[in-house]
Each structure stands twice: as structure tokens, then as C-alpha cells.
Amino acid sequence: MKLAVLKEKHALEKRVAASPDAVQKYKALGFDVTVEAGAGQGASFSDEAYRAGGATIAPDAAAALAGAGLVLKVTRPDAAEIAKLPAGAALIAILSPAAARDDLPLYATQKVDALAMDLMPRITRAQSMDVLSSQSNLAGYRAVIDAAAAFGRAFPMMMTAAGTVPPARVMVMGAGVAGLQAIATARRLGAIVSATDVRPVAKEQVESLGASFVMVESEELKQAETAGGYAKEMSDDYKRRQADLIAETIKKQDIVITTALIPGRPAPRLVTDAMLRTMKPGSVIVDLAAEAGGNVEGTVTGKTVTCHGVTVLGNAHITSSIAVDASNLYARNLLNFVTLLWDKDSRTLKLDAADDIIKAVLLTRNGAVVHPSFASAAA
Ligand SMILES: NC(=O)c1ccc[n+]([C@@H]2O[C@H](COP(=O)([O-])OP(=O)(O)OC[C@H]3O[C@@H](n4cnc5c(N)ncnc54)[C@H](O)[C@@H]3O)[C@@H](O)[C@H]2O)c1
Pocket residues for ligand 1 (CB within 6 Å)? Predict the structure, then answer.
């Protein structure tokens, strides 16, 4: 089977869906691998390195796709790209189906079996295929590095002959995968760190990293987490009490990293303009939820803005700032997933709808939208 690795089209997307190392492993499984020329450039993987791994380099996407049975990408293809996918091929990428519902009938019409890596269930067996975790972890790290670079002061306390430099105070809002890595990174840099979340289980995880946990106590918290481990939207009363707590805490912070997300909903607004006014000039906020609407009032996606003396980074494509590691981990997530699908004997992909993992990620099959969350909407 021919496996095609496409170059990402978005100018700010530097990641690639397969590393030269992954290519070697796909070859060992029995795939013929073709990589679009320049696909790995943003992640410092040369065409030569892919060739050395056993891939053929195709001059453009059309040549890479010709006759392919499996297509790998990082982000979802646009309508023009979907129209060029070969009929009968499987497509594996972060397809963002909730935000891009209109793509599903296009995959079906094109007779492409589309598999959304971002729907990977949070179960033990799927951990090595969990792209949201591998990418969020790096985003949390990078958010702190970006904040430190934009901050006119140091993170660690320094006692020097010329005087003492106080440690920075960092607050992390949302202690999921990205938030926990942001806490760990800020602690390594020597900051005093606090964090908040609506899931009570986060308390122990935050404290085990040496940060303090700040949270509104409420009976409602018992139901704040879904069976899948995600947060739910909170009541208006809870939101008011949380806003009071954040307003009180945020004035004392130098750096705020916000990562709060609710699946299928806009990101919760946690920091208002009024709160920004109370922060010290020169403080820095990194809003990792920018692409989902932002946790901070005034965030501009993909831009750095100054609001009342506070620098607000509306980071988009943050994993592209760490594209080598992001691509290596993403490539391994995909390789693990393809290994699950691959039947070595028949040299075909087995999309077993009885498997919990495949059921969770398979959007379209044989020309129809089959995913339970999207099938009726598409009909
Ligand atoms: N395979 C696995 O078992 C597995 C893999 C990855 C993650 N997880 C778990 O899944 C959960 C979700 O992780 P994630 O990082 O993908 O979450 P996410 O990206 O959906 O959200 C980020 C964080 O924001 C928090 N949040 C949402 N609304 C908030 C609000 N109003 N105020 C404050 N915080 C708010 C969430 O609780 C979450 O911790 C975590 O418990 C994580 O440990 C499990």
C-alpha cells in the first residue's frame, strides 16, 4: 500500500505528520512511503533524510497522492485538498470535526475514510496515540518560555551583591495536560506558581508539582468532570464566584498562563478587562485557549497585544514554535495508530468498527458519514 505524507499548506504550520524515523518503521511494516517535497522543512527534516529512511520524494501533492491508500497530515485539509484525495484512501489527521462539520460530507463524497486523531478516546490503550496530549504538553512548556521571553524580569529569585531579584509569580488557569506542563516548566525556572481548575482531581496533581491550588469550593464540583475526564460548563453562580476569586488572585501575579477548554463549547472567559486593569504593568498573559475563543478578554488570536500595560499573547500555532519535537511525537502517535489498523498479512487497513478506538475516531466509511456524533447531522 502506498502511504503519502503531505506538506502542510498553512503558512504558520511547521509540523509534519511523519518523521524520517517513522518512515523507516512504515517501510518495515510493508508500506511504500512517498513524501511531498519540502514536507519536513519546517521541522528540520530534509528530503534527503526521508530518502535515507526509504521514502520516495514526490515533487508535489498530486504526485504524492497518486495511487495512495493512506494519507497522513497534521491539520485538516481544505475543500480543494479534499477534492484531490484518491477515492478509497484513508486519511489520518487532526480533522477538528466539531469545528469543521461541513468537511464530513466532502470526505464521504470523495469516498475517503476519514479518521480524526483529535477524537482519540482518553483510555489507557490509546495513550500512545493521543495527539492532543502529546501536543498540549509541548504547548504548555512553550507558553512559559514565550512568557519568560516577553517578561522584562527574571523568573528565579537571585541574591546578588547589587541586590535581590524577587521570584516571578505565575498563575496557571486550567490544570490539564498543557497546564500541568506549564506549572512544571515555571517551577523549573524558579517561579512561585499557583493554579486553578474546576476538576477537583487537579488539586493533587498541581500540588505534587510544587504549586499551590486555588479553587472555589462548591457542591457543583462533584459533577464538574465528564466520564471522559473533561470539564463541563459551570453554572452562572459558580462563574461569578470563580471570577471573584480570580480577581482577587490575579492582581498579585506577574505571569498568567490560561489553558481552560470545554470540549464542544467556546473557551470559558476567565480574565476580564476589569481584571487586566488591576494587574501590574509589565505583567504577561499567554492565552493558550486563543484559538477556541480565548480565556482572556482582549486576546487577539495569533497576535501579541498590550491591554492596560499587560502583554497578552494570543498564541496560535504554538506547537510550530517547537516543530521538531511536536512532529516527532505526532509522528509516533500516528505510527502507533496505523500499526493498530494495519493487517500485515492482507496488507490492508482493517477499520474494525467494534474496536473502541476506531469507533471513536472514524468519521466516514465507504462514502457515508458513520460517526455517531455526526452521522445524523450529515444525513
Ligand atoms: N489517556 C488518558 O487517560 C488521558 C490522556 C490525556 C488526558 N487525560 C486527562 O483528561 C483530562 C483533560 O485534559 P486536557 O488537558 O485535554 O483538558 P482540556 O484541554 O479540555 O482543558 C484544559 C483544562 O481546563 C480546565 N478547565 C475547563 N474549564 C475551566 C474553568 N472554567 N476554570 C478553570 N479550569 C477549567 C479543564 O478541567 C482542564 O483541566 C485531564 O484530567 C487529563 O489528565 C487522560
Answer: 122, 127, 130, 132-133, 136, 173-179, 196-199, 202, 229-231, 234, 259-263, 268, 270
